[in-house]
Amino acid sequence: MKATVRRWAGPAGLTRLVCLAAVVTAVGLLPRLSGRDPALTVLRGRSAEQEATPEALAAVRAELGLDAGPLSLLGNWALGLLRGDLGTSWVSGTDVLPSVISGLQVSLGLMAAAFGVAVLLAGALVAPVLVRGRGSAGAFAAMLAAVPEFLLATVALLVCGVWLGLLPTSGWQGPQYMVLPAVALGVPAGGLLGRLVADALPAVLNERWVELWRGAGVSGARVSAAALRRVLPPLLPQFGMAAVGLTGGAVAVETVFAVPGIGRTALGAAKSQDLPLLQGSVLALLALGLVTGVLAALVRRRLLGPALRDAALTLPPARPVRPHPAVPVALAAVLLTAVGWGLLRDPYAVDTTARLRTPSWAYPLGTDGLGRDVLARLGHGAASTIGTAAAVCVAGLVLALALGFLPSVASGASDIANALPPVIAGILVAAVVGPGTGGAALAVALLSWPALAAHAAALVQEVRASTFLIAARAVGASPWWILTRHVLPSVAGPVTRHAILRLPGIALALASLGFLGLGAQPPTPEWGLLLDESRAYVERAPWAALAPAVALALLAGLAVSTAAYAEGRAGRRAAGARAVKKEASVGV
Amino acid sequence: MSPNQPLLDVRDLVVRYGRVTAVDHVSFTLDAGETLALNGPSGCGKSSTVTAVLQLRRPDAGEVRFEGRELTRLTERELRPVRPRMQPVFQDPYGSLSPRLRIRDAVAEPLRVQGRWNAAGPARVAELLDRVGLDPAYGDRFPYELSGGQCQRAGIARALASEPRLLVLDEPVSALDPSVRAGVLNLLADLQDEMALAYLFICHDRAVVRHFADRSIELRDGRATEVTPAGRPRSPGAAPR
Questions:
Q1: Claim: this prediction has a pTM higher than 0.90
Q2: Which residues pair with A88 in a beta bridge?
Q3: What pLDDT is stored for residue A321 in this prediction?
Q4: Would A96-310 and A326-577 be classified into the same CATH topology?
Q5: What pairs with residue B29 in β-bridges?
Q6: Which ipTM did the prediction report?
Q7: Which of A314, A427, A550, B208 lies at 20 to 30 Å from B26 by C-alpha?
Q8: First and final CA of chain B: distance in angstroms?
Q9: Domain A326-577: CATH architecture, name and number where available
Q10: SS3 A313
Q11: Which residue numbers of B have CB closer than 8 Å to A's CBs?
């Protein structure tokens, strides 16, 4: 309890509040931060004929209040917010609040359905573990959790909507319209929930009380229920994060299925520079994320009851399940072969006589709508997607190592970063600097460094408390010697490994921004953008969509299997170290 | 330093953590080649006393005079040349050696830090390892590849590399198996005879204290309640119970 109070009142809580205030201020100042002149956008939006004279533009600026200073702009916006006035749309001239509310209603319905799908899927993943009492559905569930929503949505659209023609794929007119979006949104969340529970259960089922209950003749169903109840509270914060992730996924899924929800509204507003509508919808998305986070915390309190006071109900360490190294190696080999082959070909050569060709020897993966070689675009796309991701990783690593010495900053910032899905950060950044590779990289970098910094901070704390550091001081080592010979080397290795592990995930986030038109711009071959472009002619040339989809799925698989492999190794090493420690007191 | 001045002279040492006074006006002296035991229940201020003596945490009041120099008023930079002459040996044999350094490099670190590393360095490290009863071949290993007793010997070798006059032994054998303790204690006794080292020795085990220490201080709630002069004559080689 005391620890919780300290957590919220201490420096970490302060940084958390500062970060939240910074995000809200950034939203409020969007019209000011935006580098480009919105007056022209507004004028174009209202009437195509009117001449864009300096007088007309000045009039628009005065009308929108853009000529006021940043403080009064922020003040007016905040005052309006308190009165429930979100301003008027620059494009349509209507009030923002009603559009936000109707979008929110649609999105809430979609998220509720997606949550249902997620719970069903998680149940299906967890059931075998409960029945057999051991083993875990780890790899498969992790794979499902890693597949990005935009990819799943595109594949669902392709398979169910287009090939099988079973379900409507566009719009929002009845319950049947909800099925595909809910599946696309719910499956990754369900995979995550299922994986967390399935990973934690075997160790819990090994606890002494289970044996005792079984021995006393308690039915298997009751033991299972009790084990689930035992597992859930420590996992709930992560469930809250999964719910936050849903708000980011909603943007992609609503865009693919043309669902008029809040996510699509936000994306459309960002693209048309309709800043008041963007401010309103981003605030609604943030509020949605915060409310789900608070709900998760409340449920946790309720489930824990008085145990919360001791904060003692932690999960036993899960036994690491190490996949065979052949899995990540094979995935990487397939990806590298395709990319290497593609890199040798020209991604920009347009051949209008060879449009939408089926795969052949001349075009191993076919051609796209402009007759460009899909394999070449895939190969060069990997270079730009993964190259950008690597740059983001390096930047995050450097920042993390520098800020690792300020643990409170790192933990507060990482909490906010967890509450902000990359897509929403991407929308905000794109609204400020315009869509582009740089903006997308900035958005993902802003969200990816805090986790690394928190890891670095934990390691720095651990090393600083270690006896061997005191021993180094005692022989007369200078602070510089201790920093460069002991602290940095102990921290840099593990944090670098962590950064490398995050690389595929960062590449997927960049691809999702590209898919939404917030990242790399055409004709750049970027994987997310490739998938987006191919959607237009997916009925006639499904292979053009399939190639980037498979590549992204392989990347997701690589992310999961490498992480699991590394975790397994680390787990084994830790177990080995513990065994050594135990023997320490036993003999020479 | 005049010949009749003690090596270490601690007067009215006070250490506070917030409102708690962990060490309350403790005074003692220690001569070269002598062993002073600090004992008492856990939480009585033993470890706080020695970290304050070593100036690893500055005491809140009192004097620590080492080789005739008053340490509490020195700056961190002025202390650095003094530090090598008073070396700690810790309780946890694994924690006191960096897991990332080979034994050889851990023992060589004091030489490098103190600017004494030269062509004879490797031979000096091998000699130190040999002196504490470790085959110099162990120098290639990492701490987790050694047993607890071997690690503690490596820690002692590392402390000796600084050529100290005073070793502060913070329960050096309590994490070790009883069969290993005797060996390490005998090693410490031999080293003391050979190099006239002074030992400030924290120990729980009264049998060890009686056997090993010349004098002992009983600490209780931060106060030195009892100073027993000259315990039993030491018989090196005899294992304590």
A1: no
A2: A95
A3: 57
A4: yes
A5: B9
A6: 0.88
A7: B208
A8: 39
A9: Orthogonal Bundle (1.10)
A10: coil
A11: 54, 56, 79-84, 86-88, 90, 92-100, 106, 109-110, 113-114, 144, 147-151, 155, 158, 161-162, 175-177, 179-180, 183
